[in-house]
Design brief:
By secondary structure, the protein is of the alpha+beta class. The protein has 15 helices and nine strands. Helix content is 56%, strand content 15%. The strands form two sheets. A five-stranded antiparallel beta sheet has the order 2-3-4-5-6, with no helix packed on it. Strands 1-9-8-7 form a four-stranded antiparallel beta sheet, with no helix packed on it.
Length: 513
């Protein structure tokens, strides 16, 4: 299976290049056989990319340390969930995940729209296949996830402690779905400009894909914030992760498009603006994807700059030049635009009238929650068993912290020193939190990283109490950093409201005359 996966990368690249070539040629020559071959080519590219991904997962599951990626990000005692997530722990696997999701979105778009937008689908397929071909080419030539090493170690280096978090298993894939989904509106708008034809049905398809992208980006960014929030030293700086920060750009553009396409997306003077916004959402998303791969900047995942960075810059420059040329030369006199302008009842408009205010309400809650960080209080204290320490939060309320002692124990791939602290507000105990210092080790008992401080969070409606133990005393005292983070709950509630509102935008609506 591993050998099949490695060969599948090259076949996937050939299929993507074939699909791009014959689809565009078929559209120009109006040859249905070439058009159909291009569609089959993009499906084949998806299946071959999936085989390549399955091969890498097989290598990870088998703990085949002859592969550089497996040796760098796993160890024999790594929990299974993180062995699975180690797929995207490094640049090569992350790029392969991006190619897989991109191919899946592209194949789904062609499959769903091949009958609905028959005139545009050859160009759409060609553009999508060309975009898919780029990460596949980078994988085959510059960042091969199947690269082998000359000397096979007795065990791997293990996953970095920062990545051994629940957010690691969710944040990157969800974010990638949002980034990849921007490619479909881009392909549709490019095809419309090339064919000089845009109608209300195409705009509706674009709108729905923009909504899908926005929902996934919103969820992905929030998951990244949740991941960052739980890490020591990241409280109050939740967008420190380079991946989440870069994803804010396509998210912001899609947020504007949500309103523009949902309300008056096809009105005359907005046509060019929306076409430009769709294009920039794609360009920003592609940039964000390569930030995640470590190709342009060294991000917080600890990836070094990869050789893909030059490829990414060239791709972005070429894409920007092509988009600029099309917008300047093809936008005016777009055939079919009059129909789109005259069609005020785009499907889903009624849902938009209810859903958009819900989305905006969620945004307000998030902003208020983040604004609460202005009242954040942080203390550095020493806690001794049986001796409560009183502290005040940003609201002026008194809290008591009492150490419950220190314990030591071993878990699957780490040795833990834990400090338990009773937290009380006034005379009422709120709960006991346990902060840890973790020493991660491989199966041979060798340290795989520096000792890692794992903070504990006690959430309440009005604020969170976050505690990290930075030093353990011989008398079972602990030196702790304690932070009061007001209104954090509003961030998570607001994020959920935004996602629900976005999902409502996908509900089919009845056209209004």
């Amino acid at each position: 299976m591993i050998l099949v996966g490695e060969l599948s990368l090259w076949v996937a690249l050939l299929m993507a290049v074939w699909a791009a070539t014959v689809s565009l040629a078929g559209g120009i020559q109006q040859r249905s056989d070439l058009i159909a071959s291009g569609e089959r080519g993009i499906y084949a590219a998806l299946w071959m990319t999936a085989l390549a991904a399955l091969g890498l997962w097989t290598a990870l599951s088998a703990h085949d340390l002859s592969f550089a990626h497996v040796a760098a990000f796993t160890s024999a005692n790594l929990p299974r969930v993180y062995t699975f997530a180690a797929f995207w722990a490094g640049p090569a696997g992350s790029l392969l995940l991006w190619a897989l999701i991109l191919a899946a979105c592209s194949a789904a778009a062609v499959r769903v729209n091949r009958a609905r937008h028959r005139e545009l689908i050859p160009c759409v397929t060609g553009v999508l296949a060309a975009v898919v071909a780029f990460p596949l080419l980078a994988l085959c030539v510059a960042e091969n996830p199947y690269r082998r090493i000359d000397w096979v170690p007795l065990d791997g280096r293990g996953m970095p402690p920062l990545l051994q978090q629940p957010g690691m298993t969710l944040h990157p894939p969800v974010l990638y779905i949002g980034l990849a989904a921007t490619t479909v509106p881009f392909a549709l708008i490019v095809a419309s400009l090339l064919r000089r034809n845009l109608n209300a049905e195409v705009i509706e398809t674009i709108r729905r894909w923009v909504v899908v992208s926005w929902i996934a980006l919103t969820a992905g960014i929030l998951l990244g914030m949740w991941w960052a929030y739980g890490e020591t030293g990241w409280s109050g700086a939740w967008t420190r992760d380079a991946v989440g920060s870069a994803a804010l750009f396509p998210w912001a553009v899609n947020t504007v498009l949500l309103h523009s396409l949902g309300a008056r997306g096809a009105r005359g003077r907005m046509l060019g603006v929306n076409a430009a916004l769709i294009s920039f959402a794609f360009l920003f998303a592609t940039y964000s994807a390569f930030v995640a791969d470590g190709g342009i900047v060294a991000n917080s995942h600890g990836y070094s700059q990869s050789p893909v960075r030059r490829w990414a810059i060239v791709f972005l420059v070429l894409a920007l030049a092509a988009v600029g040329y099309l917008l300047v030369t093809r936008l005016r006199g777009l055939s079919g635009a009059e129909d789109a302008i005259a069609e005020p009842g785009i499907s889903g408009r009624r849902a938009s009238r209810l859903a958009l205010p819900i989305v905006y309400a969620g945004m307000i809650l998030v902003i208020v929650g983040l604004g609460g960080q202005q009242m954040r209080k942080r203390y550095d204290v020493i806690l001794t068993p049986g001796q409560p320490r009183e502290l005040r939060d940003g609201f002026g309320r008194a809290w008591r912290f009492t150490s419950q002692g220190v314990s030591q124990y071993d878990e699957l791939n780490r040795s833990v020193i834990a400090g338990a602290v009773d937290v009380a507000r006034g005379d009422r105990s709120v709960g006991i939190v346990t902060a840890e210092e973790r020493q991660y080790m491989n199966s041979r008992g060798e340290p795989t990283a520096e000792p890692w401080i794992e903070a504990a969070t006690l959430g309440t409606v009005t604020e969170d109490v976050q505690l990290a133990v930075v030093e353990f005393g011989r008398d079972e005292s602990v030196r702790a950093q304690i932070a009061f983070n007001p209104l954090v709950m509003l961030v998570w509630i607001g994020g959920l409201v935004m996602v629900v509102g976005g999902a409502m935008l996908l509900a089919p609506g009845r056209s209004e005359g």
